[in-house]
Design a protein that fits this description.
There is one protein chain. The protein is α+β, with helices and mostly antiparallel strands and about 500 residues long. It folds into two domains: about 20-290, Fic-like fold (Orthogonal Bundle), CATH 1.10.3290.10; about 315-494, no CATH class. The chain has 18 helices and eight strands. The protein has helices at about 20-35, 40-60, 65-75, 80-85, 90-115, 120-130, 180-195, 200-215, 220-235, 250-260, 265-285, 285-290, 295-300, 300-310, 315, 320-345, 375-385, 465-494, and strands at about 140, 150, 360-365, 390-405, 410-420, 425-435, 445-450, 455-460. Helix 4 packs across helix 5 and helix 5 runs parallel beside helix 9 (about 220-235). The chain starts with 17 loop residues before the first helix and ends with a helix.
């Protein structure tokens, strides 16, 4: 397939991610109260370390399991940790430490660059590549005859040889030819600067990243530069660097390939979700600072400011609870329909020897119910899997479907607070479990499984229309996951 020239931005609002837009506005309202405190600075320091480590792992400059990364994020980039935990020689570990420190210097430089409000330039992009490859002297290139050769890496200069990779199926993927690279890079910078004020950050970031990788202007270091440019877009919006983890590789590469075919949507969504996760962690800093060395300082300052702000803005924040009540009613309706449908079919499938008929039922507890406290252990366990604090103080509701055959199978959707304070952010989790008889009588929950691939969260800044649309899609996917788990449990018990 021959190289196709880069396309300009799609029309504004072509790819929207209202969830991120709403969360961004919540974050910007509260950022000033946190950003000068020690806990926030520690959060940013660790985020920079993660970015620096993961951008090299994605490029296969080094590899290890996530546990090593987490230790380095917590304790700092040390060759002794890399050698011991990563299972490499001390000399290799020192080289890897140097590479990661190069990356760390770059992400720290991005934070500094945005303060000057300088426009994006080719000179800046070439400088990024030179920094990324400061301790890398050679790379591979492809000759015109298709031979793979080792060449000296030119730092800060556009490629002079083709760098087209061969896919696993043997097909050659064509990046921009060397003779067109400068023209394409000039077009990239011009198009980006012309569109800066007319698109959302997630679209600008995805567009810039994809078009840059489409050109692949350097002999090596293109992926790292692309993620740095994507991060720069978010940082200019007061948000966070884009961290692409090794666990994201399949989705990330898949989204880039779909973008190659002309659809930026999956890449925009992927970038928006990663940014959403970073914002949610920042908004949950109160939970983290309780355990940090900065707790006294923050409790005396930032948290008090947050409490004061939200007491003054109580009416605005309370909109999220009105939204939650409507979503709760929606789940009640959907679960009621599901239970009614199954309850009409299950009794006829009951074996002749069984006295009690197979059946299905649904029930629920609203925020005033004396049963609202049910499922606390399951909800907390699911919250741990999704790395957040489930808050039950201000709001807590649930809806359940129980499918009774030879065993009871429960599917539960729970609404509750996100984070340890009344932040105006609510979470919805979904899970399934079965009931096993106890020797001493009664039952206990076993085989707990999430019934969603990700947590659903919503907040006071997002309109109910967009929240409702997102939630309907999330619940539909959740119900499919739950019913698939029910089918699996029936097969296992056969």
């Amino acid at each position: 397939m021959s190289y196709q020239r880069i396309e300009p931005f799609p029309a504004p609002n072509t790819y929207e991610f209202p969830e991120l837009q709403a969360l961004s506005s919540v974050w910007k309202e509260r950022k000033t109260a946190l950003e000068k405190d020690g806990a926030y600075k520690e959060f940013i320091k660790k985020l920079k370390r993660e970015w620096a480590i993961e951008t090299g792992i994605i490029e296969r400059l080094y590899t290890w399991d996530r546990g090593v990364t987490e230790v380095l994020i917590e304790q700092g980039i040390e060759s002794s940790i890399i050698a011991h935990r990563g299972g490499v020689s001390q000399s290799d570990a020192e080289h890897i430490q140097t590479l990661i420190n190069d990356h760390l210097g770059i992400v720290e430089g991005l934070f500094g660059y945005i303060k000057g409000e300088e426009p994006l330039t080719e000179h800046f992009v070439r400088g990024l590549q030179a920094q990324f490859t400061a301790h890398q002297d050679y790379t591979e290139a492809v000759t015109e005859s298709g031979d793979l050769i080792r060449v000296t890496l030119q730092k800060g200069q556009y490629k002079t040889l083709p760098n087209n990779p061969r896919r696993p199926n043997g097909e050659m993927h064509s990046y921009c030819p060397p003779e067109l690279t400068k023209d394409e890079m000039e077009a990239l910078i011009r198009m980006y600067r012309e569109a800066e004020g007319t698109h959302t950050p997630e679209l600008k970031s995805a567009w810039l990243h994809h078009r840059f990788t489409q050109i692949h202007p350097f002999q090596d270091g293109n992926g790292r530069v692309a993620r740095a440019l994507a991060s720069l877009v978010f940082l200019r919006e007061g948000l966070f660097p884009l961290v692409v983890r090794e666990a994201d590789r399949k989705e990330y590469i898949g989204a880039l390939e779909i973008a190659d075919a002309g659809n930026l949507g999956p890449l925009v969504t992927f970038f928006a979700r990663r940014q959403r996760d970073a914002i949610l962690k920042a908004l949950g800093l109160e939970q983290q600072v309780q355990q940090s060395k900065y707790a006294d300082q923050v409790v005396a300052s930032a948290l008090e400011l947050l409490r004061g702000r939200f007491s003054r803005e109580k009416q605005k924040v309370s909109a999220v609870y009105e939204h939650a009540e409507k979503l709760f009613k929606y789940v009640e309706m959907k679960f009621g329909e599901l239970a009614t449908s199954l309850d009409q079919q299950l009794p006829s499938l009951t074996p002749p020897h069984r006295q009690a008929k197979y059946h299905a039922r649904s029930n629920s507890a609203d925020n005033s119910s004396n049963q609202r406290h049910y499922f606390q252990k399951q909800i907390v366990d699911i919250a741990k899997r999704f790395d957040y604090f489930a808050n039950f103080e201000r709001f807590r509701t649930w809806v359940r479907v129980t499918l009774t055959t030879d065993q009871d199978f429960d599917y539960v959707v729970s609404f509750h607070g996100y984070g340890p304070d009344d932040t105006g952010i609510l979470a919805v989790s979904a899970f399934t479990y079965m009931k096993a008889p106890r020797e001493e009588g009664g039952t206990e929950p076993i085989a707990l499984h999430p019934a969603a691939t990700e947590l659903f969260q919503f907040n006071y800044a997002e309109s109910f229309d967009t929240t409702e649309k997102r939630f309907a899609e999330w619940l539909e996917a959740s119900m499919a996951i739950a019913l698939a788990e029910w089918k699996r449990s029936l097969q296992a018990g056969a």
